Amino acid sequence: MDLVLLEKALLALFGAVTLDVFVSKLKGKKFRLPPGPFPVPIFGNWLQVGDDLNHRNLTALAKRFGDILLLRMGQRNLVVVSSPELAREVLHTQGVEFGSRTRNVVFDIFTGKGQDMVFTVYGEHWRKMRRIMTVPFFTNKVVQQYRFGWEDEAARVVDDVRRNPKAATEGIVIRRRLQLMMYNNLYRIMFDRRFESEEDPLFIKLRQLNGERSRLAQSFEYNYGDFIPTSAPFSGATSRSAKRKLSTTKPMDNNGLRCAIDHILDAEKKGEINEDNVLYIVENINVAAIETTLWSIEWGIAELVNHPEVQRKLREELDRVLGPGVQITEPDTHKLPYLQAVVKETLRLRMAIPLLVPHMNLHDAKLGGYDIPAESTILVNAWWLANNPTQWKNPEEFRPERFLEEEAKVEANGNDFRYIPFGVGRRSCPGIILALPILGITLGRLVQNFELLPPPSMDKLDTTEKGGQFSLHILKHYTIVAKPRVF
Question: Distance (Å, rounded) from C-alpha 249 to C-alpha 261?
Fold first, then answer.
């Protein structure tokens, strides 16, 4: 790179940072701020804590500074909440005050600066988008309408695994087939269509696009402009994540059954939303529904493989309640308490979105006796709420029995603020109504039909975590042996 050009860029960056500091001082107020590490000029705590603000690192900081702490990331305030009481304040009691979303350079590109539902500010646009998305996606009617498709997709997975000669001996990477299943589960709802195989060219393109989008969204590397706003032009995100539009196919003939895109396009025709809003609704479903549920299925399988006694108990319940060989359906999940406990325990220990989606207060607010300046990012460490040993018995253990014993009244819908895998309140994840039955059907079918084992050379699967801004998934896509059961 031309040294003169580099020097000019660095001088411009320094000037922008200095201007940021000067402007912030002019607008400064006297606040009683939450505790936290001492910030340095310009960079705040950025150089001290680094970019990797994952749930475990934030837990370590909470142990030092308390259940509410402040990190000064460049010119941005980041408040971390780590107790059920404070989580209730943010998500429920002061749900309106903290009901907006913070975004960064990457998400401004992916959402058209908040034209979607997930990352828009709290207000009329969010209410409109939530209403438009609820009817075609997030109701019990949708579950009953499409659960036959989910059961069919799970049956196809079982058939494909049975036909694969490697599955019962050296093992297979089952994630690849489950990823196809999850796309089909959601695309049946959205477009009333499915991909026939992993080799479908459109599926390959879509998977690559979503993979790159997920990588950019989860990474901390491209968000320097979020920390120091006037440095945004120098951020790698703008060039690396050029404005990519999601290509979708036309809806198939659905014999008069209205799929989700029909409802959404009707809203566009009525003038309730525009063409870009339609795109970003589809974008939200791709990002927020498909991969997150897939991560949870992966974690569930890994824990069942590594805990054969849990797998055995689950198989015994399925055989006892349904009968050997009788395949589980969505209505069956409600009469299988141990299966429900396995799903809950998976979501507790391996929470797919451990920090939830960040919240933001548009105006100055109070929280836990402290002042929270306007437009602060609020992170709720939901993983720590569900894994704090002062709140849970031996939380590091994968023990579904806890949800049948001491925590029998705790549900995934947020009735207890120690356990909020889908959030709570106005900005909670509406996808819970789809995720729970899909998890139950998929794990149930696999355990019914196979003995799930680690590959021959291993005693257990490697469950090393890979965390990002909004994710907790398994680091390595593992191989499992699936020995078919004979009924």
Answer: 11
Measured CA to CA, the distance from residue 317 to residue 327 in angstroms comes to: 13
Question: Both tokens of residue 396?
Answer: 């590091």
Detail the residues annotated as belonging to a binding site: 429
- Quote the pTM value: 0.88
| All residues at 6 or more sequence positions from 6 whose CB lies less than 8 Å from its CB, including other chains | none
Closest CA to 348 of 387, 314, 374: 387
Binding-site residues for heme, please?
Answer: 429
Report d(CA 9, CA 133) in Å as an integer.
44
Domains and CATH numbers, the chain: 31-484 (1.10.630.10)
DSSP state at residue 431: T
Instruction: Give the largest Cα separation in the chain, rounded.
Output: 76
How far does Cα 286 stand from its chain's mean position?
11
Distance, in Å, from the CA atom of 344 to the CA atom of 406, rounded to the nearest integer, reads: 14
Q: What is the DSSP string of 299-327?
A: HHHHHHHH-HHHHHHHHHHHHHHH-TT--
**Rounded distance, CA 155 to CA 132, Å?**
31
CA angle 344, 132, 358 (to 5 degrees): 50
* Residue 292 amino acid letter: T
- Please write the tens of the pLDDT for every residue from 93-120: 999 999 999 877 777 777 888 888 988 8
Q: Report whether 104 contacts 224 (CB < 8 A).
A: no
pLDDT digits (tens, 9 = 90+) for 375-398: 999 999 999 999 999 999 999 999
| Continuous segment of H or E residues that includes residue 453 | strand 450-453
